[in-house]
Structure prediction request, 229 residues.
Amino acid sequence: MVTDELEKLVGTMFQAHPWHGVAPGDPAGVIQAYIEIVPTDTVKYELDKQSGHLRVDRPQRYSSQPPTLYGFIPQTYCGTRVGQRCSDRCGGGNIRGDGDPMDICIFSEKSMAHANFFLRARPIGGLRMIDGDEADDKIVAVLENDLAYGRLRDIADAPEGLIERLRHYFLTYKQMPGEPARTVRIPEVYDRVEAVEVIRRSLDDYRECFGDPHARPIQLARLIGEREG
Prediction:
């Protein structure tokens, strides 16, 4: 009871951290997604993991812009389990997770003026992206109740041209002028069932790295009690 009251009090006093403080939702149904970039952005924004605020990562040096809303699923982490899944599906190798939250691309007919917001989305598939020797999966989803894309249930139902546009963007957006070419490949485009599995693995990786989010109010209450004692 004390921890429930404490959690509510903290929720009214402080803004939740986009990565650690918001529940991810149901991987097999509707998930939460935090949007870092919208298709009109000419600057790549990225969450500052320590503060929870958006920061400028870099200006986009090419004319290509992200073809969808782009961000991550809160309380996910690309660690051992995500890397192992990538190795298993792509013929072995020592592939590890990239140490970031699980990325997500969201189709919507609506244009959004700026990033830094949450939305509800349904996963329909994903891109198995490998950057060097790191798994950097991109979950593909649709905005819940979107008039144009909201009824899609699997990536096979999405227009092929949109998926190819995503592939092209992620295969090229890290190639910087004047720098050595990076080894980036997308060996697999997977369906909704596999996307659910990848998200669940990233949720488990998160808990292994950062602990169970549901236990945090108990930990906070204990720390407050120890200080008062």
